[in-house]
């Protein structure tokens, strides 16, 4: 499931490509035909991310200042959702290198152009897969497939969704005191609280495991047992990590001194360990100078391997139906 930094990057992409443009909105798959008709022909006014939720505002082209007439497309990608973008060559697709197409889900992938670099043959391209929503302007198109949530809401309904979310460390208007207070009054393990979107918006399994490790916090510590300064430091670290994720498009939580030489992980017999099914990939894995995936994390998907700092074997525990990675040596 995409973590909060990916959704913020999506919102930035929509801002760059569609804001200020009238768009055609359709549902090639057919399942969202009624919702698409509610915003078809409108002008995109804004795009925002709150945690793992993205909202795209559609304004009436005549009464675009009328808040009561604004409509928002709310999208939660969930486990399988993804956006695919393409342009006619007149616009650069944000963060896509050398290709006019981009797919954004848990990872971002630059796809090869259909024709010469900077142009797409037969723009707009035909929808690929089961496209729930297609948003098309004169120069760009965005296709949504497989979302968990996809609906058109009013401004009041959008505000109600946001009110149920905890503060988002990426947003400048976030209120960290709300996070501190929610943790302080809960007996729930801190590892569970970090994944509760009503407590903290945008954190997923990677940021959860890595932030707890960097804070040297035992995952099962109850929220109310933690000193307020510890919770504040955890928040501050997430702000740095997640905003860096927005900037770079990848999650890197290791400090340079802890990475060691670049090497593939080995099994107990000293053989190169085959990548596990569903192993996390990053959109900049092939970029020169990028931190290799094998060096990017302290504990996430490193169960069975020695801790980078203390050498203790990284453990794997299931908590609330999700895998939790941690170091029994460093996180006592």
Structural class: alpha+beta
Q: What fraction of residues sit in β-strands?
A: 15-25%
Treating each run of at least 4 consecutive H or I residues as one helix, how many helices? 9
CATH class group of the largest domain:
Mainly Alpha
For the record, the CATH architecture of the largest domain stands as Orthogonal Bundle
Topology-level CATH name of the largest domain: Helicase, Ruva Protein, domain 3
List the uncertain runs.
94-101, 111-119
Q: What is the subunit arrangement here? A: single chain
Largest beta-sheet characterization: 6 strands, antiparallel
Query: If you average the pLDDT, what whole number results?
Result: 87
Shape: globular
Write up what this structure looks like.
The protein is an alpha+beta fold and 332 residues long. The protein has 2 domains: 4-162, N-terminal domain of MutM-like DNA repair proteins (Alpha-Beta Barrel); 167-326, Helicase, Ruva Protein, domain 3 (Orthogonal Bundle). Helices cover 25% and strands 20% of the residues. The chain is built from 9 helices and 12 strands. It has helices at residues 4-18, 33-39, 155-163, 176-184, 190-193, 205-214, 228-248, 256-259, 293-296, and strands at 24-26, 43-50, 53-59, 71-76, 82-87, 101-104, 108-111, 131-136, 140-145, 149-154, 315-319, 322-326. A 6-stranded antiparallel β-sheet has the order 1-8-9-5-6-7. Strands 2-3-4-10 form a 4-stranded antiparallel β-sheet, sandwiched between helices. The radius of gyration is 21 Å and the shape is globular. The protein starts with a helix and ends in a 6-residue tail after the last strand.
């Amino acid at each position: 499931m995409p973590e909060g930094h990916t959704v913020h990057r999506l919102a930035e992409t929509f801002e760059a490509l569609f804001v200020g443009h009238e768009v055609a909105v359709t549902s090639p798959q057919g399942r969202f035909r009624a919702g698409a008709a509610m915003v078809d022909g409108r002008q995109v006014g804004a795009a925002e991310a709150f945690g793992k939720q993205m909202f795209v505002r559609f304004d009436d082209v005549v009464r675009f200042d009328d808040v009561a007439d604004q409509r928002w497309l709310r999208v939660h990608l969930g486990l399988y959702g993804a956006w695919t973008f393409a342009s006619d060559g007149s616009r650069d697709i944000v963060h896509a290198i050398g290709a006019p197409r981009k797919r954004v889900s848990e990872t971002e992938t630059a796809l090869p152009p259909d024709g010469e670099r900077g142009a797409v043959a037969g723009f707009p391209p035909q929808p690929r897969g089961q496209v729930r929503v297609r948003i098309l302007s004169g120069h760009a198109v965005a296709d949504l497939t497989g979302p968990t949530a996809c609906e058109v809401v009013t401004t009041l309904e959008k505000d109600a969704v946001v009110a149920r979310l905890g503060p988002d460390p990426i947003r400048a208007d976030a209120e960290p005191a709300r996070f501190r207070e929610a943790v302080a009054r809960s007996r729930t393990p801190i590892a569970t609280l970090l994944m509760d979107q009503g407590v903290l918006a945008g954190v997923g399994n990677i940021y959860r495991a890595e932030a707890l490790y960097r804070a040297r916090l035992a995952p099962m510590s109850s929220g109310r047992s933690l000193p307020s300064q510890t919770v504040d430091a955890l928040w501050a670290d997430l702000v740095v990590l997640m905003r860096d994720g927005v900037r770079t498009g990848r999650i890197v939580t290791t400090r340079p001194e802890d990475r060691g030489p670049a090497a593939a992980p080995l099994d107990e017999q000293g053989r190169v360990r085959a990548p596990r099914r569903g192993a996390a990939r990053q959109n900049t894995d092939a970029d020169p100078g990028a931190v290799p995936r094998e060096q990017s994390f302290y504990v996430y998907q490193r169960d069975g391997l020695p801790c980078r700092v203390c050498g203790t074997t990284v453990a794997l525990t299931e908590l609330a139906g999700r895998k939790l990675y941690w170091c029994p040596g460093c996180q006592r």
